[in-house]
Amino acid sequence: MSSLKVNINNIVAIFLVASLARFKPSLGFFAGRRHVNIVNRLESHEPLTVHCWQNDGDLGKYNLKYEEEFRWDFMDFLTFENVRIECNMDFNDGGKPRRGHFLLYDTSNDVRRRECYKWCNWSVGIYGLYAYDEIDKIWDYEIPWPSNNRF
User: Fold this and answer.
1) How far apart are CA 53 and CA 141, in angstroms?
2) Whole-angstrom distance, CA of residue 151 vs CA of residue 41
3) Dist. CA 102–CA 87, nearest whole Å
């Protein structure tokens, strides 16, 4: 009887490891606090308006001066709950308004070329958004401003 119990335990352990191996850390396996940060690095030093929301919760609207940042954090547990963070951003580009709607974080889709784990840092420039790579410690150009100039 004990050999049957060992075999069942081994089967359960193998199943659990196989199930966990198919998920990325962003799907709930980073059990801790994630930090999201948006900084205005517009080369023209124009103010940047940022309005963000997480799932259905409004995170507020902010007018960021050059080098000013907006940050928030959320808990990521082993819940497999989909977290989606979106923002509308706009600034004055040489007398013309520049607008865009950006998906900054989504547990069900790859938003960035490289995964953000604990820190999801975004820098906003005239050409678009740059994401900070925690492993290589570099900024990667990720998302251009939309050509349709709308939210």
Assistant:
1) 23
2) 20
3) 5
More confident residue, 16 or 45: 45
Which of the two residues, 58 and 112, has the higher pLDDT score?
Answer: 58
Average pLDDT, the chain: 79
pTM for this model (two decimals): 0.73
Amino acid, single-letter form, for residue 43: E
How far, rounded to the nearest angstrom, does the alpha carbon of residue 136 sit from its chain's CA centroid? 17
Distance CA 101, CA 10 (A): 48
User: How many angstroms separate the CA atoms of 48 and 87, rounded?
Assistant: 12
Q: Beta strands of the chain (E only): which ranges?
A: 32-40, 48-54, 57-64, 69-76, 84-93, 96-106, 119-125, 128-133, 138-144
Instruction: Kindly report each contact of residues 137-145 with a partner whose C-beta sits within 8 Å and lies 24 or more positions away, as own/partner.
Output: 140/112, 140/113, 140/114, 142/112, 142/113, 143/102, 145/98, 145/100
**Would you give the DSSP letter of residue 116?**
-
**Residue 1 amino acid letter:** M
